[in-house]
Amino acid sequence: MLHLTDCNILYVNLYPHQKATHMHEMSIVLGIVKIAETEAVKAGVEQFAAIDLEIGNLAGVEWEALDFAWQAAVAGSVLEKAEKRVHKIQAKGQCADCDHIYEVFHIHDNCPKCGSFMKAILQGKELRVKSLDTF
Ligand SMILES: [Zn+2]
Q: CB within 5 A of ion ligand 1: which residues?
């Protein structure tokens, strides 16, 4: 079994202020299929057995919409038979005023230690194809 890793970073902070829609998830899934097809050509395989995705909770992805788009988008592609494994990444921010690192559940969350809204997002906006497994 071939295990391809770190294929590509798909989108980082794609549409931070856009309300998630089914169209949004569809374009994400089509981007994932495109990456998988490129990797399939490189690896010389017709189908993948599994795909691992890492998705941050600030990536703006709605899980139900993603699943809905997935079923439609992978039909007839190299991902048609692939098991989709989603690894959710909990967002973390570092306070710009006191350096405290804390979990961020909403982009406008503030520091629980000093109350500041100024922060650097350390993780949680990512959406990446982590790996692909062949049969
Ligand atoms: Zn702080």
A: 95, 97-98, 100, 111, 113-114, 116
